[in-house]
Amino acid sequence: MTGLGAQSLANGTAGMALLHIERAHVGTESWYSAHTWIKQATSGEITSADHAGLYYGAPAVSFLLHAAQADGSERYRRPIKTIDSYVTRLAERRLIQATARADHGDPATFHEYDLFYGLTGIAALLLRHPPDADILPAILRHLIRLTHPTSDGLPGWWVAHDPDRIKPTPGGHANLGMAHGAAGLLALLSIATRQGVAVDGQFEAIDRLCVWFDQWRQDGRTGPWWPQWITLPELADGRLRQPGPPRPSWCYGTPGIARALQLAGLALDDTSRQQQAEHALAACLTDPAQLRHLTGPGLCHGVAGVYQTAWRAARDARTRSISERLPFLAGLLDRHAVTTKNDGSLLNGAAGLALASHTSAHQTPPHSGWDSCLLIT
């Protein structure tokens, strides 16, 4: 894959290059091989247009090149300096647009704030590699603004569009997931707080989001779970229509949400919050009814994402209840590794599966920091 498609972290060569960078860091592959993949990912003109975000274009390439530098080397120093200047200007433009939208009172969109292509993802990149400009605090202030209700009582991250083309939500919805919703906002603000990066109102915003998740938590027979999103009728009467938990996944479902809540507990030094989140994740990972739906290989909504999320959560957990489920999940990784051949992508295919399997095999945090693009660390 070359050109514009190559610079996609989700589905292009940029995502596949992350795997080869991680392998080069640990010595199981040469840096020459990793460089070949990086060259292919950057073979075309790299876009910093307004549709670019963490998973596409200049921010994706910046993430990739910084991952190659994670060992403290000077690799790609000059191109990083150039690409990061484009990322800063992109972030400034996107923030101006988002502020104007909010000031006008229009609903937000995924593109404005989410992890894949919005300000949450751009902030996640800037948090790891802070620019000289003060754009990161400004983005944090905007994301905090989204945690306040709008003038008509809707959550600030409410979107008027559907979550999916085949799943209409007339009147819009409030997304709860890590990729496009409140869990992503919560994880970012919590990670920033833990790293000592905070602006006025950040602790309160984390608490507001936690209260939102408390409000919509469903206490099922096998443990707590959360819906993928809240529709206008559900918000109006405070009653959920979804009959049971969605499939366990990083992007939607209990694993991603529970990790975000665990990070919030750690950020606020709230032991009770942390333990509740860890209980929810452990319960999900021992529920056969939920695990039956874990059929895909990928990071987004497959076993790779659940494993990597659970592995990170287990390292921070106060008990071994999550870590005790990792061998079972590792077995699922091995089974999918035999059959996942055609799709080499990061989010849904073999690259993400191989990276999670790499974590399983080495039992050390990724040297490249690749999983920071999932907001689980």
From TrEMBL:
Is the keyword Metal-binding assigned to this protein? Answer: yes
Keywords (alphabetical) are:
Metal-binding, Zinc
Under the GO molecular function aspect, what terms does this record hold? metal ion binding
Which InterPro entries did the record assign? Answer: LanC, LANC-like
Q: Name one GO biological process term.
A: peptide modification
User: Which organism's genome codes for this protein?
Assistant: Nonomuraea rubra
Protein name, please? Answer: Lanthionine synthetase
- Keyword Metal-binding among record annotations: yes
